[in-house]
Each structure stands twice: as structure tokens, then as C-alpha cells.
Automatic annotation (TrEMBL):
It comes from the Bacteria. This is High-affinity branched-chain amino acid transport system permease protein LivH. One of its GO terms (biological process) is amino acid transport. It comes from Planktotalea frisia. The gene is livH_7. One of its GO terms (molecular function) is transmembrane transporter activity.
Length: 343
């Protein structure tokens, strides 16, 4: 039972990232009908927003500290972050420590701008082109963005730690009546799951209960009729592209303490996120979230040592095997809509 609970926790952790990326991807496909292979790059850019904020907060000046001496007795040169000058040492240390959560406030406007520029500058020209053209141009854009990040930040992963308050682990075993230290799980992974749940809930609430969201949902169902009512649906869809980019970016920001940002992390998640979208059903937002968590849990169980000993390598292909089975039995995915991608 303890092994099962641990794998469920691992699955929810992975599923949170899959669900957030697939949610943004489905928002773009559902509103604009565009197969966006650059969506993984948006996840990567979000992660590097956290790296950027962390670096900005640690920009420092060099001073001579007479209270510290080297082995020859000379005063030491000490690097003092500017945030210490502005807010004091205690507050400055807290700000630096909480760089990743604070990056959210930087990433939201940046990602919305990136999404709007991407949609207005490039993708709008491919609305009525074949999906193959959309895939090629967005995949090429993803490679360009990846190389830009590689040029400015380097090819090596950049460790970006979580706040020190969340660096420990939570003893789930004690909470469920097991022996202490039986089920230990990192606090930040639990924070990531809770964060993903809040973002997913906020997106669905926005689409369900706001006038803007209702118009967008109507446009997803029948774009032409909504346009005939005098509503500028294109403008609203552009805003939704920016919001979808923000969702992917926030997923990347909060994932940085779990997986150190690197220039190819977007590609690592891109294929998996498309599999999630296809399994959930193209254009289905609930399907994308459901498939994200289900596939995350399946991948986690397939990674168990007992399973790998019986079927070596199954953890590498389980998601794709499930996708094949789902598409053979339910070609539209778990919750796909009729007519989507069937022309």
C-alpha cells in the first residue's frame, strides 16, 4: 500500500505538468484550430523567466569588508546584492530565497506578450492552411526559440532552488498510519500539484462563469455565427492565445526547482503533451486535464522496479502504448468532440 500511495503521488506530480501544458495546447487548438508545436517552447520560456528573475535579484556590487580577513590578514572583497541595499539584508535574503514564486509576477505579462506576438506575427497567417503546414512552421519556431535560449543562457542546466521553507519532505506515512519515514515526499512537488489545481480551476472558472469566457466557448463551437453577431471573436481568440501561453509559462516557472531549466526541456515535454491532448480528445479541455493526470499516474506505476524487471523499458513507452490503444478503440480520444480533426 505504501508503494501504491507513493506512485500515485509521483503520478499526480508528473500529471500536473502534463495537464497544464496540454490545457494551454488545447485552448489554442480549440479556439484557433492551430496545431501549435511551439507550445513546449512556451513552457521553456516560462522556466527561464524564473532563471532571469533569480539572476536579477542576485546582481551585486563588490565592497571591502574590514570585518573579514583572508589568511594574510587583508580585508576581504564581498559581493553584496543590490536588494540588500534597497530592502535591508533580512528582507533581501527573503526576496532572493523566494525568487521562483516571485517570478510568477514577471512571467505572466512576459508570456502574454510572447503569446500575442507569436499569434499576431506568425500563426494568424496559417489559420486556413493545412495542419501539416502549421506543424512545420510552429516546430521551426520552437527550434528558433530553443536556440535563442541556448545562446543567451548556455547549454547546461541551471539549478533554480525552491524557497528554503519548501526544501524538506512531508511524511505521508505518518499521516496515513504507516511507520514514520515510510512515505516521504518533497514539499515543493506538493506545492506544484496544488498550484496546478488552482491554475486549472481558474481557467475553467474563467471560461465557465465570465462573459468573455462564454463568448470564447461559443466561438469554439461556432465561430462564424458568433462573428455574425458583431463580436470581434478574432481579438478574443488572440487574448486566449496569450492566456494559453501564460498557462504554459507558469507551469514552467514552478517546475524549475523540480527539473533544472535547460534549453531542450520544451521539446522533452512537447511530444508527451501532444499525446496527452490526443488521448484526452482534440479540442476537449476536460479531456486534456483528465488524460494528463491518468497518463502521469500510469507512467509512475510503470517506473516501479517490480514492473521494469518483468517488462524492461515499459516506463519509456507506456504512454504511447496507451495512446495507441485509446485511438484504436476511441479514435476521438476519451472526451473528443465529433468533427474535430476528422476532415
Amino acid at each position: 500500500m505504501d508503494a501504491i500511495l507513493l506512485q500515485i503521488l509521483n503520478g499526480l506530480d508528473k500529471g500536473s505538468a502534463y495537464a497544464l501544458i496540454a490545457l494551454g495546447l488545447t485552448l489554442i487548438f480549440g479556439t484557433l484550430g492551430v496545431v501549435n508545436f511551439a507550445h513546449g517552447a512556451l513552457f521553456m520560456i516560462g522556466a527561464f523567466c524564473a532563471v532571469t528573475v533569480s539572476r536579477i535579484l542576485t546582481v551585486s556590487r563588490t565592497i571591502i569588508d574590514d570585518t573579514q580577513k583572508d589568511f594574510l590578514g587583508n580585508p576581504l572583497k564581498v559581493e553584496v546584492p543590490y536588494v540588500h541595499d534597497w530592502f535591508g539584508q533580512a528582507t533581501g535574503d527573503v526576496i532572493i530565497d523566494w525568487a521562483v514564486p516571485l517570478s510568477i509576477f514577471f512571467a505572466i505579462p512576459v508570456m502574454i506578450c510572447v503569446g500575442v506576438i507569436m499569434e499576431r506575427g506568425l500563426i494568424k497567417h496559417f489559420y486556413h492552411r493545412p495542419h501539416a503546414d502549421q506543424i512545420l512552421v510552429t516546430f521551426g519556431l520552437a527550434i528558433v526559440l530553443q536556440e535563442i535560449i541556448k545562446f543567451y543562457y548556455g547549454a547546461n542546466p541551471i539549478p533554480t532552488p525552491a524557497p528554503s521553507a519548501f526544501t524538506g519532505s512531508f511524511d505521508f506515512g505518518a499521516m496515513f498510519g504507516f511507520e514514520p519515514n515510510t512515505i516521504i515526499y518533497p514539499y515543493w512537488r506538493l506545492v506544484y500539484f496544488a498550484f496546478a489545481a488552482v491554475i486549472i480551476g481558474a481557467v475553467f472558472a474563467f471560461l465557465q462563469f465570465t462573459t468573455f469566457g462564454m463568448v470564447v466557448r461559443a466561438g469554439m463551437a461556432d465561430r462564424e455565427t458568433v462573428g455574425l453577431l458583431g463580436i470581434n471573436i478574432d481579438k478574443r481568440f488572440t487574448i486566449m492565445f496569450g492566456l494559453a501561453a501564460a498557462v504554459a509559462g507558469l507551469a514552467g516557472v514552478m517546475y524549475t526547482p523540480i527539473n533544472s531549466p535547460n534549453y531542450h526541456m520544451g521539446m522533452d515535454f512537447l511530444v508527451l503533451s501532444f499525446v496527452v491532448v490526443v488521448v484526452g480528445g482534440m479540442g476537449s479541455l476536460p479531456g486534456a486535464v483528465l488524460a494528463g493526470f491518468l497518463l502521469g499516474i500510469l507512467e509512475s506505476f510503470a517506473s516501479m522496479r517490480q514492473v521494469i524487471e518483468i517488462i524492461p523499458g515499459i516506463n519509456q513507452v507506456i504512454i504511447y502504448l496507451v495512446a495507441i490503444i485509446i485511438l484504436l478503440t476511441r479514435p476521438r480520444g476519451l472526451m473528443g468532440r465529433k468533427g474535430v480533426m476528422e476532415e
